[in-house]
Structures are given as structure tokens and as C-alpha cells.
Amino acid sequence: MEAGVRRRRFIVGIAVLAAGRAASAQSARPMTTTTTSAALPAASLVDLNAASRDDLMTLEGIGEVRADAIIRARPFKARTELVERRLIPEALYDRIADKVTVRPLPGTTPTVRGATTATPATTTRR
Questions:
Q1: pLDDT tens digit string along 17-35?
Q2: Residue 36 to residues 33, 44, 49, 88, 100, Cα–Cα distance (Å)
Q3: Could you tell me which CATH class the domain 42-101 is placed in?
């Protein structure tokens, strides 16, 4: 009977130690909050046109293969092209959309969607 009691105490002791380690590991992690893209400074956003492979891989759901595919598909005019070009699924885009941006490449003129270029008016004299 005494061996059974010792064994139970040993198992309970191990469980207590494991629970204590898990609790201390959780308290050591920094607390994170959910923010929107408006709250994030532009410097902390990942630029799809300039980010390194490692920078892209910091995004949730982006591993080596997807990071390489994004780099090969550059340049981007809008971040929605990730889904339009079928580089990532829409569900993943919804999770990372507020963490990415697309800045125009140096030497190019940024375009505004829906904007048309003005053509000079011609006058006809009779």
C-alpha cells in the first residue's frame, strides 16, 4: 500500500511542477493586443514590394514557399493582388491584410484606382 501512495505523490508532484512551468512561461510572454491598420505606424507594416523573405515569413501563415511566390510575383499595385493572383487564400488575406502595405516602387508614379487621365481638349474652328 505504501508503494501506491508514494507513486501517487510522485505523479501529483510532477503534475504540479508541469503546471507551474506552464504558468510561468505564459507570464513571461509579452501581452499582445489586436490593432487595426489605422493604429499601426506605417513603418511597422510589411511592404510587399520591398520586404525580404524573412520579413514576409513573420506574417502569420506565410512560410518559405509563399514568401518566395510573393517575391516572384512582384511588383504589386495593391495588397489585394495577393488573392487576385491566387498567391494566398482569402481567409489568410483577411488575417494579414492589416499588417501589409504596398508602396510604389522608386521611379514609378503611384496610380489612383478609378482615376482617368485627362486628354487635352481639341477645339475645332470653322
A1: 666 665 555 544 444 444 4
A2: 10, 12, 21, 21, 11
A3: mainly alpha
